[in-house]
Specification:
elongated; alpha+beta; six-stranded mixed beta sheet; 636 residues
Amino acid sequence: MPHSRRELGKALVPLRVAGFVALACLAIMALSGWREWESREVDLRNAEVDMANLARSLTQHAEDTFDLADTILTGMVDRMEIGGTTPAAVAKIQTFLQARKYNRQRIRGIFVYDETGRWLATTEEVDLAGLDNSDRDYFRRHRASNDRGTLIGRPVKSRSGGQWIITLSRRFNHPDGSFAGVVLTSIEVAYFTQFYRRFDIGPNGAISLLNADGIMLARSGDEDGAYVGRDMSQSQLFRTLPGRPDASVYYFKSPLDGRQRLSFYQLSSRYPIVILATKDQDDVLAPWRRQAVVRMAIVTSLTLSIGLIGLYLVRYLSQRQRMAAALVAKGADFRLLAEECSDVVMRIGLDARILYASPSCARIFGWDPAKLLGTPALAGINSEDRPRVQHAIDALKSGEAEEARIVYRMRHREKAEIWVETALRVTRSSVSNEIDGVVAISRDMTEQKDLQDKLASLATLDGLTGIANRRHFDERLEEEWARAKRDGTSLSLLLIDVDHFKKFNDQYGHPAGDACLRALARILAPQARRPGDLAARYGGEEFALLLPNTGAEGCVEVGERVREALRELSMLHALNPPSRLVTVSLGGATNVPAQAMVSDSLVAAADRALYAAKESGRDRLVMSGQVVAWPGAKTA
């Protein structure tokens, strides 16, 4: 009977081995498929990051373009309301427009229409007689509404040049407040399409500029204007836009060309426009598909090889010596794979000491693996990260989790700390099935971590001045406002605006204007002396200094330092009397936030103070409704 049982056991061994080989092959294929899927997801996430960065950059570009047009409109409205629409005044305006130098690449033309739609003046070389724009949608809307704001109209074909243009317009009034006419600036749709051509988004990628109502303003690759003016308001994105965040990843099937697209949309916080940067999902995944086919072919070949080896073992299992030799050979092969692996493989016991370390430990950590045996596994981990790693290992050893993945800093033997990503998994005793340790597979993530940090830093900086941008300022304002509200401390804000900056640009040119803004940024940056302080470019020639835990007196002191530093710089500005130097107007506000207040109230107070500083003569600081005159400043 015992002999029969032994024979039965031997007869079942080949079946068990065959089952094990089949499960191993299935596991390899499943693991390979999972890794390929993860690789696919990584490619998609990387493309999402690329589209997010592109959409944010193009939104800033569009806002800057509309800012330039809006600045021109504001100046022209002031001129028309001051000079009127008499023939002499109109002739003066026409002469001014013909002589005006501006960026024709961005701004196609400037136009002035009277209350009947008749052309009064323009930068275009056309005969104004008989030209009438009263039928245009933007003219009718300004005539019917008292709104003095800028209207971004639907794209139309220019009557002076015949090309597709985007219009920005403002209403101007007679002295009695009645409708006097419209001032309009135009931007060629081709300007945006040519600019978008610079970005490599794949053969089927697209960049679209739309207004908030879903009207297509410009699209990359649309050289003949086939998509301009198309109504996309019924697309899935615009139907659900009110319930969506201002910026997000968005996957959709394009209603224009039927392609499945990966995209990122960005809704401007300053203008009713949307940037949609998209890549064809097939273009994104094409490299992955090619590589996946090669890798899966290799894995399939390896799996078939393992299956054939398993069949070979099953066939000759009765020959114990040959079976043992085959097992030894296979064991050596698998150990060779583990020893030659580029990642560090460690076996950690229940006492948190290292039981095994692979040879790649010397390359990644700089330590001889033999010298690490028996040492504490957490010894080289940064003290700030060690509790997180300890918590993960404790959870594994207690059975709360089977695996974990964690990123932390690790001390290198010969150089500074490196960032490491480690995948942890529990091991169990083959006898009792109890947890007897942890396997850790680690890889060097320093380069990836540095790249992530650099990308995060670029997203918060202003491209021209190098200080914080508006988005970063808004985020920090909310944080410091909440902190001040919680702690009951004061929060101060300085808004700084360059006096007569438009005249400075007109007199010395935009490169000099950019240099002026950079010089002011270099003055403001050192004023943010404490960790909570922030110097930022608020928009155009306007800057902001956020000063947490600072009272009104401290706010004034900082403003005085800015003024003194700018005076010492002595930048020439011939059109800024009486000093004929570059000066700034400052508006300051200090608040101890109450529960019912919002951070916008601090910005609004500082903005009102800045307006008062400009109204009272410029080159001064207004703080909480009082003018703080500087030495040598002209008082109102």
